[in-house]
Amino acid sequence: MVKGKKIDTGLTYFGMVVGDNTRFGIHSGTMPGALIGSNCTIGPGTLVFENIEDNTAFFTEFKGTKKQFST
Question: What pTM does this model have?
Fold first, then answer.
């Protein structure tokens, strides 16, 4: 979907479209058909389910784990 209109790619499988100067953190991923704009930052461990507009920072919120040490 682009601007509310379905576009036929003519392909059986479709990965994603990524704009210029977009950066991905380690262990990040996208769902098929994602459109990611230019000048974006995708944080580490982030899974992109939706289209991302230009000039966007998109991160997953991490909840820290607590380690318990026995003495």
Answer: 0.73
